[in-house]
Amino acid sequence: MALSRLQPSPTQHALHLWFLFSLFLITLMPRAAHAVPSFARQTGMQCSGCHTVFPQLNSFGRQFKLRAYTLGSANADAAFPANLPVSAILQITRTSTAGTSGVDAEMLPRDQQTIVQTAGVYYAGRITERTGAMVQYSRDGIERRWGVEMADLRFADSTTVAGGLDLLFGVTLNNAPTLTDVWNSTPMWSFPHVDSAGVMPAASTMLDMQLNSQVGGVTAYALFDNLVYAEAGFFRTAKTGVMRPLGWGVEKTRVVDGYAPYWRLALQREFGSHSVAAGLLGLNTKVWLDPNDPSMSSDRFRDIAFDAQYQYVDGAHAFSGQALYMRERQRLTAGFAQRMASNESNSLKTARIGAHYAYRRMLGGGVQVFSTRGSADSVRYGMGPVMGSANGRPDTAGLVAELDYLPVENVKLALRRTAYRKFNGGTTDYDGFGRNASDNNNWFLMGWFMF
Asked: Residue 263's Cα: distance from chain center in Å?
C-alpha cells in the first residue's frame, strides 16, 4: 500500500514553538549569560571563552577539558549556592516529517509534537586541584526515560620533558566512546548536535554513538607539546561496581561481551586564529546478540575512523570545517547461526563532511552531507514498513542544513532541514510498502537553554 504525504503547516508549528521560546527569553535576560553556568562561574568567562557556538569548542575550551575542567577560580570566594558546580539544561523541540499519513504511530511516537526533548542537570566543574567532572543526568523526551546521558570524570596534570617541552596527561572515567574527545569532528560532538524525532536509518557503526550510556570506560590520554594527542583504554557493560552508575536509568540495548578496547591518535597545530587537527580512532567490540541472554553468544565489530578539523576564530567571525570517515567490519557469527543475518561477515562505511559559520556568536548555521554504504543483508536489513529495506541494503545519503540564532549566549534557537536522496538502500519504494526516501525528510525546530 502506498503511503501518501501529509502537508503540515510550518507557519503554525513555528508560531507555536516560538511563543514558548519567548516566555523563556523573558526569564533569561540580561545578555551577560553563559553556556554552562557552573563552568562560567568557575572561570569568570562567558561561553565564548570556550566555545564558538556551543557545544563546539575553541582552543581554550579544548585545553579546559583536557585539564580536567579545573582552570579558573573566580567563584572560590562565592557564597552558597553560587559556588556549587551545578547547571541545568532544557531543550524544547518539534519534528515535522514529510510523510506520516498511514504510518503506525509507534514508529514516529513524537513526530508533529512540541516536546521537552531534554530536561536535566549538570555537575560541571572542579572537584579538587587536579580533578573535575562534567556529568549530565536528564530525561530523554523521545524515549521517555531518565538516565546519565554523559559522564566524564577526569584527573589531569602536566610536566616538562625532552628539553622543556610540555606534556599534559590524564585519566578519565566516562560512559561513551568519543565523549572524551576535544574536537568537533568525532561522533559524539559532530553536527548535528541534537537528534530529531524523525525516522532513523537502519544502520550505523558501533563507534557512531551506539554504545552511549550503555557502557562505562576508563581511558588514559596525553598531549605532547600541544601537538600529538594519544588516548587509549577500554569500555565494558557493568551490572555492578563503580561503572554501573554511568548508565544508571538507561535500558541496555547493547551489552558488551567482555572488554571493548578504544584508542585515539591525533595531530593538531595552531597558527594564530587558525587551527587544524587530523587523526585516527578505533573501537573493537563484541556485543551480545540478545542483551538479556548471554547464552546466545556475541558478534564482533571492528571500527576504525579518520577525522579532520579546520577552525578559524577571529573577532566577529568563527568558521569551522569537519570531515569524518568510519569503516566497520562485522563478524556476525552469532547472528548468522541464529538466522538473524544473511551473511557471516558484513561491512559498513559512513562519511560526513560539514562546515559551520557564526557571526558575532549570534547568527550562524551549518551544513553537512552524509553517506552510509554497506553489505547487502536481506535478514539484518529486512523488508518492512518505514524502517525496512526492500533490497536488503543499508545505504543512506542526504543533506542537513541548520540556521542558528543566539539571542543571549546561553540560548540557541535553531531551524534544521534534513533531506534524504537515498534511505535504507533506495530512493523510491525503499521499504517495499510504497515509501520513498523523501518521505523521511523533516523540519526540526529547537530551543536550547542553559541555566
From this structure: 18
At 209, the amino acid letter reads M
Q: What is residue 333's DSSP assignment?
A: H
* SS3 labels along 144-158: CEEEEEEEEEEEEEE
The answer to whether the peptide bond before residue 81 is cis (omega within 30 degrees of 0) is: yes
Question: Rounded to whole angstroms, how far apart are CA atoms 287 and 388?
Answer: 22
- Cell 555537575, residue? 123
Note the Cα 295 to chain centre separation in Å: 32
Sequence-distant (≥ 6) Cβ neighbours of residue 134 within 8 angstroms = 36, 69, 122, 123, 124, 150, 151, 152
Amino acid identity of residue 261, one-letter, is P
Nearest to 213 by CA among 125, 302, 152, 295: 152
Instruction: Extract the runs of DSSP E, i.e. beta strands, from 162-251.
Output: 165-174, 216-224, 228-236
H helix count then E strand count, the chain: 4, 16
Question: What is the distance, to the nearest Å, from the Cα of residue 245 to the centroid of all Cα atoms in its chain?
Answer: 20
Count of residues in the chain: 451
pTM over 0.85? The answer is yes
Q: Which amino acid is at 399?
A: L
- 60-117 pLDDT, tens digit each: 889 999 999 998 776 766 665 567 788 899 999 999 999 887 787 778 888 889 999 9
Nearest to 372 by CA among 327, 318, 335: 327
Q: How far apart are CA 435 and CA 451, in angstroms?
A: 42
The residue ranges of DSSP E strands in 213-297, in sequence order, are: 216-224, 228-236, 260-271, 274-288
- Which residues is 281 bridged to in the sheet? 264, 305
Given a contact cutoff of 8 angstroms between Cβ atoms, the answer to whether 334 and 299 are in contact is: yes
- Listed in sequence order, the DSSP H helices in 289-447 are 333-337
Contacts of 315 (CB under 8 A, 6+ apart): none
Is residue 333 within 8 A of residue 299, CB to CB? The reply is: yes
Q: What is the mean pLDDT of residues 188-208?
A: 92
Task: At 315, list the grid cell.
Answer: 573577532
Q: Which of 340, 341, 431 is nearest to 390 (CA)?
A: 431
- Tell me the domains of the chain and their CATH numbers: 10-450 (2.40.160.10)
